[in-house]
Amino acid sequence: MKNNHNITLNNINKSYQKGNNTVVVHDNFNLTIESGEFVALMGPSGLGKSTLLHLMGGLDQPTQGEVIIGTQRIDNLKQAQLTQWRAENIGFVFQSHHLLPVLSAQGNVELPLALTPLNKKQRQEHASYALELVGMSERANHYPKELSGGQEQRVAIARAIVSDPHILLCDEPTGNLDRKTADEILALLTQLNRDFGKTIVMVTHDKKAADYASRVINLETYIFEPKNIEVGERL
Amino acid sequence: MNTSLKTGHSLLTNMRQAKALTVINFKSFPQRFVASMVSILSIACVAAVILSVLAMTEGMMKTLQRTGLDNTVLVMRAGATSELQSVMFPVEVNILANNQKIIKNNEGVAQVSAEMFVNAEVAYISNVGGIKQATTTVSLALRGTSNATQKFRPNFRLVEGDMFATGVRQLIIGQAVARKMPALRVGKVITLGGAQWKISGIFSDGNSVFESELWADIGMVQSDYRRGNTIQSIRLALKDINDLPTLEKEWQEDPRLNIRVQTEKKFFADQASSLTRLIRWLGFPIAIVMALGAMVAALNTMYAAIASRSKEIATHKAIGFSPLAISTSILCEALLIAFVGGLLGILPLYFAFDGWTAATQNASNLSQMMFNFDITFLLIIKTMSLALFIGLLGGLLPAIKAMRLPVTEALRD
Ligand SMILES: Nc1ncnc2c1ncn2[C@@H]1O[C@H](COP(=O)(O)OP(=O)(O)OP(=O)(O)O)[C@@H](O)[C@H]1O
Ligand SMILES: [Mg+2]
User: Fold this and answer.
1) CA nearest B83: which of B119, B51, B35?
2) Do residue A86 and residue B318 have CB atoms under 8 angstroms apart?
3) What pLDDT shows up at residue B366?
4) Atom of ligand 1 nearest to the CA of B408
5) What are φ and ψ of residue B238, in 5° steps?
6) Ligand 2 mean position to A190 CA, how many Å?
7) Is the ipTM of this complex over 0.90?
8) CATH class of this structure's domain A7-224
9) Where are the domains positioned within chain A?
10) In this complex, is the C-beta atom of A86 within 8 Å of any C-beta atom belonging to chain B?
């Protein structure tokens, strides 16, 4: 396979120690997402959807088990290696955009490029292109407080894709938006998946949002099979 | 979007990242300026105190270092640590002056100056022309001098009026005294120990400590202060200062003499170090306590700053900024606070007090000594470094905390 960026979770256990109690969020969890898929993660609150996303993006580490992206095992990487790996491979989009209020849309999108060897001019060009992709070219010099919720989320998506990661991890990206705006954002994600081959994992509570995905995983009904069993088939 | 964007985690890339984040922090700093005010002000106070102490000691050192010639030997009674404590007799002057190693003029007269030095209570009317006349009393150094005295003061100049006349109660005052007490002008009559003296002139002496003194004829001082013909200190010009050790040995072995011999330069240098030590002992403990307070304030401010920005910091981590770069940017903000505080402490002091004349009160038996606040560039650098150091210490723990901040918790909204 040419561009193997499959996401593989092997026998994941994620638990938290609360005094004498152990809160088990995931136990013996297996999942494979192939390069180029657009997966919607659904399920009731508190079931560990965000946790899964954090594990895939190397923001969090499993108590047990393996997280493999492509050929790279990331659950045992050191913090410094992990942040570098994340900068190169993962784009995050959150429910709240987390844009910096002191930077313009352009400035916010350029920020991740500070992690690359690109010079100032190249950074500007890349950021402009990303803003163009999300349809925000006209608002490049606007500050977040001058933008609507949908526009802010577009800028956040531009920031996530600007350094061209293979994988986009989106945690309820339309959670704060009205139907129409949400549909626009979802269409944009679909386009990024279809035209640019981005692998997208999107957590959502919205059935209509999930319809945009090529596969829907409902954690409530997802069967946690032990090893060697084909997992992650369409439900 | 088809370029492969490889990153590295060398120190250089870390610094690049830190720079990007620091620029952002500085951009949003004006919003936090008020919240950072406590730290800024407390660092400003520390900087002001430290700079005052340094500028004061610097000014004193300079004044005292300008005093005294290299080849002048100062002789006092053995055991005396200052001219005030010393008593000498004319016969001793003769023994000392007869020595071969002392410079003599064409007529064979040795270059010797016998001097009186007393602490004079000076009373004068300070508000001339006012309706109610107020009398001011200060303690000033009064030196009884002779003609030879001026030979030991190559920088001595009369800047106003005339030399005092001998045999009458006239005196000349140093220009540091005149500056500090503007009511003391040429022609003014002042009261010294009950007697009326007239100011005949004002002198300068290359900004030396002598400019803090009043000079009069030694005979008048001796009789007014009932000292008979005793004197207090003797200055001798040596042909070669390298002869001092042998000369000192010779005099120490002379049963007629019981004296203390040192160069005039060393005498004033010692006075300088004991005076500045005193100021440091008083000033630095205060400064240290304040510095600790300022550090805690900076610590608090930075903790608050990262608490309010935990989401922002988590976002930066999610984007891929290294923890080191993030903590470096926090440190830079602490340094910015310290820098602003340092400036706020230094600049007013610099504009208001550089060159300002202050006076000691009878410290170390020097009577009143006037000196200038001397705020040099080096002192400003020193003070600023200290301010930055406080900021650095205050920012360190918050920076480490920011580095360790768990991303997932901060991002759950
Ligand atoms: N630091 C923690 N300590 C203890 N328990 C935690 C911690 N973080 C998460 N959890 C628990 O892990 C579980 C999964 O959390 P997660 O945020 O992944 O759920 P979610 O499916 O994303 O929920 P939601 O739909 O509300 O966002 C929750 O029950 C939560 O209480
Ligand atoms: Mg969640």
Assistant:
1) B119
2) yes
3) 47
4) 8
5) -90, 140
6) 21
7) no
8) alpha beta
9) 7-224
10) yes
